[in-house]
Amino acid sequence: MPIQVDVAVLGGGPGGYTAAIRAAQEGKKVAIVEQGKLGGTCLHLGCIPSKALLRSAEVYASLLHADTYGIKLSREAVKVDFTAVQERKEGVVEQLHRGLRQLMKKHGIEVIQGRGRIIGPSIFSPKSGSLAVELEDGEMESVVSRHLIVATGSRPRQLPGLEADGETVLTSDDALRMETLPSSMLIAGGGVIGIEWASMLSDFGVRVTLVEAASRVLPGEDPDVSAAIAKALSARGVRILTGAMLQQESLSKDSGGISVAVRQGETEERLQADRLLVSVGRIANIEGIGLENTDIAVQDGWIKVKPTLQTAEPHIYAIGDVTGGVQLAHAAAHEGIAAVEHLLGLMPHPAAPHRIPRCVYSRPETASVGYTEEQARAAGHDPMTAKIPFAAIAKAIVHGDSEGFVKVVADRGTQDLLGVHMVGAHVTELIAEASLAQFLDAVPWEVGASFHPHPSLSEALGEAMLATLGKSVHF
């Protein structure tokens, strides 16, 4: 007999397991089908392991500059044990994995380990959307549900001529498994992943060259943010080439690493490095999941969904990376909740894509929510901006790292808060206040009038809000 549930979730990443928990909270019988480890890319090959490595790199860099704080350490006494760094990363991942498995037990969610595929209607389900699951031992299991949520995620995009081999040409997945640090790394792509790896590796002492096709790194962010990150990384020795393209068929490999030509305008040069990391976006995991057995539409490689997150088959939803859009774990989790609340007949709060916080965990960090100044103008607003440097904030000076700023974008006529953009230490912790302010439709004076403890980095946000009105106190 098949396993019969109210809600089946195909994929156990942040979107999938969050959806499962929300459905279980409402008393629904739920099953997750996951071919890998519960937690998906974020927990095992993305957000968490990369942040663990970034933290180790940050600590190492801080120790190398301990004399800034009156602590005397010889450079020879500070060494990187990369094996231990990787062991710590694995320990962090496993601790969170254990906690996630316990959450599934707590909510009575059945987790089926295997590869799931959507099949057509059966005697148990008049609608397509039932799942055939190939278990790890090769046996088959059937899952029949009233509703199905597809949350199969994405994987790194590869470039013809620069395909990953796991040794010298790497995806971000491969890079997380490195057993030793290279002496040099060439990174193709100056988006979030490329910037985080450039920051991490340079902190570990690796020579980094970063190539970005756009005119600036982090091209989706405010230009001031892009400029600040480029300046910070360049100051640490990272060579950044923008408006540049790797000549994909020019790659050569030998015992010394890789060599590839790069064209920047009319100039072409050949770059060499121990390894090449290709971080040029991601593609949806839609192969082999049975979409051909449904009426689900695929557009540009992504599952097409309605604002309700329903596919062309109303009882089948799709969430997270597999739909394209904002490819962030917290966006997928929000969509998981929204999909479940919609199938329950509730009124979920829709998330405007530009109001989803965006974070880069480099050194310094970046964090943004809402429109950039350019986007606000394109949307028909008359934007005004204010920017407060962390150098004006006591806690940043005490912290010993006062680079960066908080920039606020507001509408000149209505005073509406349109966007907040930050660069600096711990700004990924500060962006939630700006996100909440937008969610509640707060205007800058309301945020600025609320208490921001002294000394704290949050004062920069309060001061920037007041600065839109010309009322900043400390700058």
Automatic annotation (TrEMBL):
One of its GO terms (biological process) is 2-oxoglutarate metabolic process. The active site is at 454 (proton acceptor). Its EC number is 1.8.1.4. Its cofactor is FAD. InterPro entries: Class-I_Pyr_Nuc-Dis_Oxidored, FAD/NAD-bd_sf, FAD/NAD-binding_dom, FAD/NAD-linked_Rdtase_dimer_sf, Lipoamide_DH, Pyr_nuc-diS_OxRdtase, Pyr_nucl-diS_OxRdtase_dimer, Pyr_OxRdtase_I_AS. The keyword Hydrolase does not apply. NAD(+) binds at residues 189-196, 212, 281. Signal peptide: none annotated. Binds 1 FAD per subunit. Keywords: Cytoplasm, Disulfide bond, FAD, Flavoprotein, NAD, Nucleotide-binding, Oxidoreductase, Redox-active center. Residues 6-336 form the FAD/NAD(P)-binding domain. It catalyses: N(6)-[(R)-dihydrolipoyl]-L-lysyl-[protein] + NAD(+) = N(6)-[(R)-lipoyl]-L-lysyl-[protein] + NADH + H(+). It is found in: Cytoplasm. FAD binds at residues 51, 116, 152-154, 321. Gene3D superfamilies: 3.30.390.30, FAD/NAD(P)-binding domain (3.50.50.60). One of its GO terms (molecular function) is flavin adenine dinucleotide binding. Residues 356-464 form the Pyridine nucleotide-disulphide oxidoreductase dimerisation domain. It comes from the Bacteria. GO terms for cellular component: cytoplasm. Pfam families: Pyr_redox_2, Pyr_redox_dim. Disulfide bonds join 42-47. The keyword NAD applies. Belongs to the class-I pyridine nucleotide-disulfide oxidoreductase family. The active site is a redox-active disulfide bond. This is Dihydrolipoyl dehydrogenase. It comes from Paenibacillus albicereus. The lineage of its organism: Bacteria, Bacillati, Bacillota, Bacilli, Bacillales. The gene is lpdA.
